[in-house]
Amino acid sequence: MFFELYSRSGLGKGARSMMVSDYADVPTLTKANIDEKTAESLLKRITPLPPRRTVKSESEWSTLDAIIFDALGLTQGERDGVYEAVVNLVEARLRKARSLRGKS
Prior knowledge:
Blueprint: H1 2-6, H2 36-45, H3 58-72, H4 76-100
C-alpha cells in the first residue's frame, strides 16, 4: 500500500517507480516517535480492508449515475452531454491504444 501512495507515476502504461529519496517520506513507527504500548495498540487495530463488491449491472450503474447527477444538479441535457463525453474519451483512448500496439 505504501508503494501505491508514495511512488511516482507518469512512466507510461501504468508503471510506477520509487527512488531511494522517496522512502524518506514513507511514515514508519520507530522507538524514537512512539512507545511500545501505543505501537502494539495500533498494530492490533490494523486489519485488512474488507472485500469490495463491484458494480456489475447496468441498472446499478444507472442508479449510481443518477445519484451523482442529482447531487450535481445536472439537467437531462447535461447528463446526456456527460455520457457523450465519456463515449468520446473511451473511443479516443482505444484509438491511441491501437496506435501504440507493438511499439514497446
